[in-house]
Specification:
six-stranded parallel beta sheet, five-stranded parallel beta sheet
């Protein structure tokens, strides 16, 4: 071994000085970094706190009226509970439901109520092929059939199909239901058609059963809609992945956007995408006048002024800004392909870039097998919207109404129902600047009574919220329900 290794050479004065210099330099750098952490520059503090305050204000607003102390409460009467559905002679009823997913949901709920009124055995509802979307999904493709029957086993006898001995029995078509049909009407007009030697076939019941039934039936309505009708496990699991992705950094807002071509045709409204687009919609409407659902003779502009049209992306964007939503708000938008494609969403995306939907959140190719199954895609939207902190719909309809009631029942978060008539008046007012419009938007929507209060008169205007009044218990504003 060399002497160089055996014997250390004495350090030179120069080398010792360098060592001390680097130690002092490191200490100086550490102290300065520590000082910056404790006392950041003014511009950093201002930017961060403003964004944080904006977020806090918006989400704080979203919590008002939600924790109201009420909860689901299905206290059926003793007479209802003591009635044995399995002790009666078996008379079978079949129901065909039509429309999109949420229209079908409503009819399935009503079918269960009708079966209970008639003391009939309900054959699992048949989903009619949707004429607009061409979806051939059956009940068991979308809903958990086993769960459905298990939850309702003490309310209605439900079978997956007719027993073999009944297959050749004559189908008796039920009379057409009028709107607001009550229990007496059902018994008088369907009861005499329900026999042991035939099968009662019921069609066209969409939104026709009265929303003002006896207390037990109102509770059953909630039980079916919010407890029994559950999507198949794999649909729930897929939706849960989407919920986790968009909610991994905190709460999110869900928008149900009604911007599809058929929506503009059916509502008799203009899309706001320019004269060429308006002319295309008008020509479609003239070619298919049966699609115009409103009986009103109002022109498109008059419909808009009356608050009868869906809010487009620009109008939704102004609404969100007025409500105080910060630019970095995570937004899940539900709905079909907008008329005008992605460009129709640009005004909203420009103001709120964290705009996502099921396609952008899912992995590549994950939804390919169901891309032609609109009912299943709508089920994914339903679950993600249900779980959001805030839910807003650009227009009314079956999905919006179902979700508003379901969210109240489960207590997931706040529903904000846009006051479209007041909004369009603000948007058309050219004397107000942007800040004044935003201030008025917030004022309008903070003064609206929240859907979650059982005693609020606003509940009488919406059927899905009206039924929740009969299914909740607790103290609200000094009143006990």
């Amino acid at each position: 071994m060399s002497s160089c290794i055996k014997h250390k050479l004495p350090a030179s004065p120069c080398r010792q000085t360098s060592r001390y210099f680097f130690c002092i330099l490191a200490l100086w750098a550490f102290l300065n970094i520590f000082r910056v952490i404790l006392h950041p520059p003014l511009f950093c503090v201002t930017t961060y706190s403003r964004e944080k305050d904006d977020n806090n204000d918006f989400w704080k607003m979203s919590e008002t009226g939600v924790d109201s102390g009420i909860r689901p409460c299905l206290n059926f009467s003793e007479m209802y509970k003591n009635f044995s559905v399995r002790a009666i002679p078996r008379k079978y009823m079949m129901v065909v439901v039509s429309g999109g997913l949420n229209q079908q949901r409503n009819q399935i709920v009503d079918a269960v109520l009708i079966a209970r009124i008639l003391k009939a055995v309900l054959v699992m509802p048949v989903l009619q092929v949707n004429q607009v979307w061409g979806d051939e999904s059956e009940f068991s493709d979308i809903f958990d059939e086993t769960h459905f029957k298990e939850v309702l086993k003490n309310d209605v006898v439900i079978v997956s199909s007719l027993p073999p001995r009944k297959l050749n029995r004559r189908r008796v078509r039920a009379p057409v239901m009028p709107f607001h049909a009550d229990e007496d009407w059902i018994i008088q007009n369907f009861g005499n058609k329900l026999r042991r030697d035939s099968i009662l076939l019921v069609r066209a019941i969409d939104s026709k059963l009265s929303k003002n039934l006896n207390a037990d039936l109102q509770k059953l309505r909630c039980k079916v809609a919010y407890e029994a009708l559950k999507f198949r496990p794999w649909i729930e699991e897929t939706a849960e992945k989407l919920v986790k992705k968009i909610g991994q950094e905190g709460p999110y807002l869900a928008l149900h956007l009604r911007l599809e071509k058929d929506v503009w045709v059916r509502t008799g409204c203009q899309s706001g995408l320019g004269k060429k687009s308006d002319l295309l919609i008008e020509n479609e409407r003239k070619a298919k006048p049966q699609l115009l659902t409103s009986r009103s003779k109002l022109a498109a502009q008059d419909r808009y002024a009356a608050g009868l049209c869906p809010l487009n992306a620009k109008e939704i964007s102004r609404l969100l800004k007025g409500l105080g939503a910060p630019k970095n708000t995570r937004i899940y938008w539900a709905g079909g392909v907008p008329f005008g494609g992605e460009s129709a969403l640009e005004p909203l995306r420009r103001q709120f870039p964290n705009l996502q939907n099921k396609w952008s959140l899912s992995n590549s190719g994950e939804l390919n097998d169901i891309k032609h199954k609109p009912s299943i895609l709508a089920a994914l939207d339903y679950v993600v919207c249900l779980r959001s902190k805030v839910f807003i719909a650009s227009h009314g309809g079956n999905m919006a109404n179902s979700l508003q009631g379901h969210r109240i029942y489960t207590g997931y978060g706040k529903n904000i129902k846009p006051n479209k008539k007041a909004l369009v008046q603000l948007y058309m007012n050219k004397t107000l600047n942007g800040l004044e419009v935003e201030k008025e938007i917030k004022k309008i929507h903070t003064e609206i009574l929240d859907f979650r209060s059982p005693g609020d008169t606003v509940l009488t205007k919406d059927s899905s919220s009206l039924i929740v009044r009969n299914c909740m218990c607790g103290t609200q504003k000094g009143k006990v329900n």
